[in-house]
Amino acid sequence: MGNGTTVQAGKRATYPAYKSSGMDWVGDVPEHWDVRRLKHIASVQFSSVDKHTKEDEIPVQLCNYVDVYYNDFIREGIDFMAATATRSEIERFQIRHGDVLITKDSESWDDIAVPAYVAEELDCVLCGYHLAHIRPDVRKMIGNYLFRAFRSCGINDQFRVAANGITRFGLGKYWLDNALFPIPPLDEQRAIAAFLDRETVRIDALLEMKQRQIKLLQEKRAALISHAVTKGLDPNAPTKDSGIEWLGDVPASWHHRKLGYVASMSGGCTPSKSNEAYWRGTIPWVSPKDMKKRCISDSEDHVSEEAVSDTGLRLLEPPVVLIVVRGMILAHTFPVGLTSAPVTINQDMKALRPERGVVADYLAFLLEGISSLVLSHVDESAHGTKCLRTDLWKNISVFIPDEQEQLEVCAHLHQQMRKLDDLIRRVDDSVAVLHEHRIALISAAVTGKIDVRGEL
Length: 456
Known about the structure:
By secondary structure, the chain is α+β, with helices and mostly antiparallel strands.
């Protein structure tokens, strides 16, 4: 049992006495708090409700992965997916005020157990696929506190450790049921939840302002790229009608091509996870989680030469353009990368090797410049995962200058991008600091490192 203190933690008081929580990732908790497994304080079920429309079923709305991932609070106004469900599915998976929903599957280890709190009653909205539906026992736990506890970096670490997978990560029900949570008395849970509601609103207002700045800079970046690859750099150059409504006039010297004839395309795969020798190499194995920057020279995961020789993997010598063709990121972003080292890719990616007369750097800029058009060809698989139908987007018409002009466009864009990317990076850094402060404050409150009862 630890000794308490009446001094301040930062600017906030701590509890009078502490004890060990028995959880290395949490440390000590207030002496009068409990530590319980999730299955003892809430019911947990994994949703099996998917988008399907059958005449004999009842119309419903689905709260899906993206709704949870992008919203802390599930309320009216979210554009839920229309679907149908059986009466049994409605009884089991209809969400209620006070429920907590979390992501149980993800393409990124960091995105496991992202929570959202159902902040009001909704009419016939069901928990959708790829989510866990958690209903707290109101005698022991309030949903808003549990939601905040899932946001604590210490508590959330146990889910990241438990998640398994290589291309996709999944959290098993056993690990979720048996996850440990510090449990204050109900009145303290309410006080902590109310305190965090108030404080996070202030932080979120600052974050929103910073994110607006980033969005404006990104829009300017996108506009510069789009203009350069569709109109060129010389405003006085002769033009011609492209014959394409969205494109309008283009430089007269540019040549009409279909994307499918601009580059050859190849795919990737995932070597067997059961063969450890395949995953002990140094060859980058690029998946969508690695597509966070334009220049691709390495990846989180690596494979061996044995994996390349034994499987359908191809070693891609640079430069090739990499794109994501399947994943939830395609709901809003079309990631494009340019390799500067030999890599392999997984099955959610495509590699584009430019044909003669097309510069790889220019092709990457071109795809970035028409990303909104490419995203219009994104479809949805049966399980709600976004996928790019390459048979459609390969027929997109583009106009391409000669090789020398392509190099000039690339040089100009790199010069402009350096300035904009530096500005974006500075604002991003300040956003990261605010996010860290937000997570630290939540973690401190829900693990009892600070006593907020006197602040309300």
